[in-house]
Amino acid sequence: xxxxxxxxxxxxxxxxxxxxxxxxxxxxxxxxxxxxxxxxxxxxxxxxxxxxxxxxxxxxxxxxxxxxxxxxxxxxxxxxxxxxxxxxxxxxxxxxxxxxxxxxxxxxxxxxxxxxxxxxxxxxxxxxxxxxxxxxxxxxxxxxxxxxxxxxxxxxxxxxxxxxxxxxxxxxxxxxxxxxxxxxxxxxxxxxxxxxxxxxxxxxxxxxxxxxxxxxxxxxxxxxxxxxxxxxxxxxxxxxxxxxxxxxxxxxxxxxxxxxxxxxxxxxxxxxxxxxxxxxxxxxxxxxxxxxx
Length: 293
What we know:
Elements: H1 2-26, H2 35-51, E1 58-63, E2 68-73, H3 81-95, H4 99-107, E3 127-132, E4 135-143, H5 148-160, H6 179-188, E5 190-193, E6 200-207, E7 213-216, E8 220-234, E9 237-239, E10 242-245, E11 248-251, E12 253-255, E13 258-262, E14 267-270, E15 276-292
Antiparallel strand pairs: 1-2, 1-4, 3-4, 5-6, 6-15, 7-11, 8-13, 8-14, 8-15, 9-12, 10-11
Helix pairs in contact: 2-5
């Protein structure tokens, strides 16, 4: 009799374990972002802004359903930044992608995406999901910093404070310019990547005539010639020098110095504080300039 009872108890226990195992197979452990976590995201973004001299910004944090948890507007940020930052955070978490992905898709021609309701879709760079142990627990959006690039940098810094965006802590995102954007920049001579929040910038420069003599007190210029030829003078003395901005001197020409003929494929590095002058350009003369401070 006793052994029969024990067998019944054992069978019942095994049945209970089987039911529990089946239930575990149907339900997963879900992580969630707390209010303290949301505040930590905002604090990290603010610290990053301070370290990188960001002039402003609104930081918004939403939960995994896109519901606003916390928001803070830094001094000097335009009023509309609040709604934009919420939209970026909501887009990042609901679509499980950084918002820059959608901005790039639309820029590259898939314009029908802009027809999605703006109540949950804001395809502007500056929103990233917040991920913990492979689970998306929320999103952070930033709007109103110095540039879209810096919006995203602040968002990544915030997300990294409680989770892992897939980047190393405080890592800056990779910047990509497709050929159409590069061609458009060279057509008029334009800045591809500004120097906000970093010690370098990239110009897609175009020149069809001589320029002024220049001295960059703090910046070194790394020049790569893409097309055309030019007469380039370095060193010597600037004629009629004038300070046009802090650390920037311009003049009508250069006396003395070393003259070189630049052509396609050439690279020349002009250290900071060194006078330089495009004395003649056989246009169109196209060249990349990477400025390093």
